[in-house]
Amino acid sequence: MASLDNALQELRGERSGTQLRLEKLNQVISAIESLNGTRTIERAGRPKRIISAASRRKMALAQKARWAKVKGQGQSPSVATKTSPALAKRKISAAGRKRIAAAQKARWAKLRAQQKKAA
Question: What is the dihedral of CA 26, 31, 36, 40, to 10 degrees?
Answer without folding.
Answer: 40
